[in-house]
Structures are given as C-alpha cells and as structure tokens.
Design a protein that fits this description.
The protein is α/β, with parallel strands linked by helices. The protein is 35% helix and 16% strand. It is globular.
C-alpha cells in the first residue's frame, strides 16, 4: 500500500491527558506517536485527533454503560477539560479534535463525514489502547471500506500480550501493520507493502 498524501488521514486515537491515568506505561508510545504526527504534518497529510469527550452533565452517557458511567462519576473527559486534552507532544494549536462518545473513533460524531468530504481513502491509526479504540476503529474503518495502516509502536495496551497478538496476528487481515520508522520511510517515497 502506498500513501497518497491527498487521500490519507492520520488519526491519533485517545492520546489524551486523562487516558494516561488509566494506562500506566502508555507514555512509552508517545515519542513514536510524536514522530508519526510530525512526519505527517511535513508531508501534508490530514491530521485528526480523536478522543473521548462529553458535554457538561454527560447527556451522552447511559446509566447502563458501566465504563462511561464510571467516567461520569469521576467527572472526567468533559470537552475542553484537562483530562480531555490531547497530549501536548502531538497537539498544536489549530489541530482538529473530534470527540467520540464510545470506544470506536466513529462513535457519535461526524468523523466519517469529514473523511468522505475530504476524499480520504486511507487511514493511519495509532493510540491507546490497542485492544480498545485501535481495534474498534480498525474494524469499523475496514467495514467502511477504508484502507488502513496501524503504527504498532505508537500504540499501547496495558496487556503486552494482547498488544502483541493484535499487532502481530489479528490486525494484519485488515491493515498494513508497520513501525513508526517504516511509516516515515514511506512518506519519504518508499511504499508500505500489504
């Protein structure tokens, strides 16, 4: 798979200040994520940060959803709050942030419409957690007929074995799975094979 800058979007997924509190060790993936983001900016790719975010009062949270009810109880991830902020290593003023209300990046927002309106065909995915938003977003993106690339060393999961199985065995059926350096090489003109 070759990257066409005009038809490719880079999605950082849940790389937010508040998520780091739930995923000890996630900071280890930040340097690779920052390299991918910077290379993408330089290549002129569409960059979108997708993260958890709710309106004040949490009208999007059902009492029957245990994960998001816990977030509501703790008062986290209100849009614009410290916990909802994208990590400063990858965020610049003026970047586009899209909030979602469940696990997948496509949940409860206009992400698909934004991608289609820009003529995007390929998505580059990375974030926290590999078994959460990355897996859910990859499955949804594949079902929506996007070509996908997962940057394995810019993803993190608190269960190292789950991360390994997903990136080495599961994701390959729906994405090119590459390291950050391989992605950067591709942006310099070498294709990513799938």
């Amino acid at each position: 798979m070759k990257i066409d800058p005009k038809k490719t979007a880079v999605l950082s997924l849940d790389i937010q200040q508040g998520v780091l509190g739930f995923a000890p060790g996630a900071e280890s993936a930040i340097p690779n994520a920052a390299q991918v983001v910077e290379s993408s900016r330089q290549a002129g790719l569409l960059l979108l940060h997708v993260g958890v975010g709710f309106k004040p009062g949490y009208p999007e949270v059902s009492p029957s959803n245990s994960i998001f009810s816990m977030i509501k109880e703790r008062g986290l991830f209100i849009e614009g709050s410290a916990s909802a902020r994208i990590h400063p290593a990858i965020f610049r003023s003026g970047d586009t942030v899209i909030y979602k209300h469940r696990i997948s990046a496509f949940s409860g927002n206009a992400l698909q419409m934004i991608l289609r309106s820009r003529g995007i065909e390929t998505l580059v995915l990375f974030g926290f957690a590999t078994s959460g938003i990355v897996l859910s977003t990859l499955r949804a993106a594949s079902d929506l007929d996007f070509r996908c690339v997962v940057i394995k060393d810019a993803c993190f999961d608190s269960d190292e074995e789950v991360h390994r199985v997903l990136t080495e065995k599961v994701f390959a059926s729906q994405a090119a799975v590459v390291a950050a350096k391989e992605f950067q090489t591709n942006l310099a003109g070498v294709g990513i094979a799938k």
